[in-house]
Amino acid sequence: MFVSAPRSIALLACIACLPAVADEPRYNQISLRAEASSEVAQDRMHVTLFTESQHEDPAQLAAQTTSAMNKALQTARQAKGVEVSQGSRSSYPVYEEKGQQITAWRERAELRLESGDFAALSKLTGELMRDLKMASMHFSVSDAIRKQNEDALLKDAVDAFRARAQLATEALGGSDYRIVNLNLGSGGGYQPVMRNFAMKSMDSMPTPEVEAGTRPVSISADGVIEVQMP
Q1: How many C-alpha atoms does 167 have within 13 Å on its Cβ side?
Q2: What is the Cα–Cα distance from 50 to 86, expressed in whole angstroms?
Q3: What is the CA radius of gyration of the chain?
Q4: H helices then E strands: how many in the chain?
Q5: Best CA proximity match to 54, nearest among 6, 8, 108, 9
Q6: pTM recorded for the entire structure
Q7: Most buried of 9, 152, 165, 171 (most Cβ within 10 A)?
Q8: Each residue's pLDDT tens digit in the chain (230 positions)?
Q9: Strands 26-41 and 193-194
Q10: Secondary structure element (H or E) that encloses residue 80, with its range
Q11: C-beta pairs of 206-210 under 8 Å, 24+ apart in sequence
């Protein structure tokens, strides 16, 4: 008697819970995606300059390259508000026509500049291009500005997801929905935008005319909802 009583109570408890399971609402799961975006002015300018030369003596070639880079670095470091760093540096042999004998060596070294002050960087670029050549110039959105705009778009992305969820519910003839999961993420990534530039004479110094333009910043909302059917 004392051994079988707990089993009887457990059986009655399971039977009692069956109607509650049967009465739970029925749901259909749907994956949805929504996005909110805006155009943001690019506030960072990036310039890569380089020196490249050739010489029969690799030691003299290395000395020439080092001298050219040191001179450029000294000039660049004097510009206020410009971040200066050295890029890649490489050398390789130059062969004669048959490709069997080395006739000279060629070396290339890069100087990278970045700033939010376009006028200062443009002026510096013009000065350095007396001795160096330009490899590239592009613009980007700084991390602080990008995050500020993404935070502002977050609520818009969630509202857009809810609006799409409601439309999907109505299209399926559902009575209500609930969000199973929702993931928020920034759209795209760092994508440098290359720009052409025109050269003009300013106080006898060639200075690039630049136009940074804008770049889209977006927040996406990806998730799954369950639509309650009547």
Answers
A1: 10
A2: 10
A3: 32
A4: 4, 10
A5: 108
A6: 0.70
A7: 165
A8: 444 444 444 433 443 444 444 556 567 899 999 999 999 999 999 999 999 999 999 999 999 999 999 999 999 999 999 999 999 999 999 998 887 899 999 999 999 999 999 999 999 999 999 999 999 999 999 999 999 999 999 999 999 999 999 999 999 999 999 999 999 998 644 454 444 444 444 444 555 567 788 999 999 999 999 999 88
A9: unpaired
A10: none
A11: 206/126, 206/129, 207/122, 207/123, 207/125, 207/126, 208/122, 208/125, 208/126, 208/137, 209/122, 210/45, 210/118, 210/122, 210/137, 210/139
Distance, C-alpha 74 to centroid of its chain = 31
CA distances from 214 to 29, 125, 139, 146 (A): 38, 22, 9, 12
| Six token digits for residue 142 | 């700084």
Query: Token pair of 185, please?
Result: 């993420």
Is-contact 162 215, C-beta < 8 A? no
